[in-house]
Amino acid sequence: MPVPKAELHLHIEGTLEPELAFELADRNGADLPFASVDELHHAYRFEDLQSFLNLYYRLTDVLRTERDFTDLAEAYLRRASADGVRHAEIFFDPQAHTTRGVPFETVIEGLWAALRDSERRYGITTSLILCFLRDLSAESALETLAAAEPYLDRIIAVGLDSAEVGHPPAKFAAVYERARELGLRAVAHAGEEGPPAYIAEALDVLRVERIDHGIRVLEDPGLVERLVRERIPLTVCPFSNVRLRVVDQLTDHPLRRMLDLGLLATVNSDDPAYFGGYVDENLEGVRKALGLDDDHLRLLARNSFEAAFIDAPTRARYLAEVEAYRF
Ligand code: HPA
Ligand code: ZN
């Protein structure tokens, strides 16, 4: 049995496996620009974040009905439970759907049908993080948050994703302020392809509690010191960083250095259907590539629960499971 862990950086649209994409395309009469699952597999070679996003948004077109979103989330839960995931905070990108005519309600009702009972059925507690697409306008983000208002009891936080460079966090100051008024917590992708200054801006202007990716923090020693001092979690995604060419190869990944510096780093899968593995495969990958030992692995599992948006008794229960685990 794998070590118990929380997954905190997982885009539900990024769990769309080629087989399910073809099944949904068939069911919905949607066109896919690939002749077969094999041909689609070959398209999973990316130059950078944008080249990945182009395929990611293209494939979301097969997701059209509530049932499609339910099937997608069910498949993830099944997979995550085999990986020892005990708690998942799941990103979703409403604007990837509303901009092509799928209502917000369809997306959230579909996801919720799978997630509402996840603890009983899969032993996984879950919550949703609504992400704004940062290459769309601030007004579109505000409209998206307004559409979410009837469903706030299903959403723990807001996040920020999509093309980072040229879309600094401050562009979304107003919608994060509104989200905070509504009682939502806040995270943001920063320092993946974008500069360390975006990490500081996400903390200072958006007042986020966690940074998604954040590996470029290492270019700014003063900022590293701040994140260590303030115990700001970083949701690191090793396979994603290699596939999107943020890092040359897994053996060059800075995760171990981040832990040595005292950063509160966690390991996550980002878009596992596209990047070659789910969370346990990411952990096994860095274990081998970076020579991590059992203490590192226990620390990563502990960090994942420290960084999660869960109440104190739940955190204590999960941390006790980590301490009891024998590697
Ligand atoms: N970065 C930015 N946006 C994204 C990602 C990512 O890794 N995955 C899905 N949307
Ligand atoms: Zn991401």
From TrEMBL:
BP term (GO), one: adenine catabolic process
Record-linked InterPro entries: A_deaminase_dom (IPR001365), ADE (IPR028892), Ado/ade_deaminase (IPR006330), Metal_Hydrolase (IPR032466)
Pfam families recorded: A_deaminase (PF00962)
EC number: 3.5.4.2
Entries under CDD domains matching the protein: ADA
Cofactor(s) listed in the protein's UniProt record: Zn(2+)
Keyword annotations: Hydrolase, Metal-binding, Nucleotide metabolism, Zinc
GO molecular function: adenine deaminase activity; zinc ion binding
Domain of life: Bacteria
Binding of Zn(2+), residues: H9, H11, H189, D270
Amino acids binding substrate: D271
Annotated cofactor note: Binds 1 zinc ion per subunit.
Listed SUPFAM superfamilies: Metallo-dependent hydrolases
Ranges for domain Adenosine deaminase: 4-324
Site residues by UniProt (Important for catalytic activity): H213
Catalytic residues, chain numbering: E192 (proton donor)
Any single GO CC term annotated in Swiss-Prot or TrEMBL for this entry: cytosol
Protein family according to the UniProt entry: Belongs to the metallo-dependent hydrolases superfamily. Adenosine and AMP deaminases family. Adenine deaminase type 2 subfamily.
Matching HAMAP family: Adenine_deaminase (MF_01962)
NCBIfam families xref list: aden_deam (TIGR01430), PRK09358.1-6 (NF006850)
Protein name per the record: Adenine deaminase
Organism (species): Nocardia pseudobrasiliensis
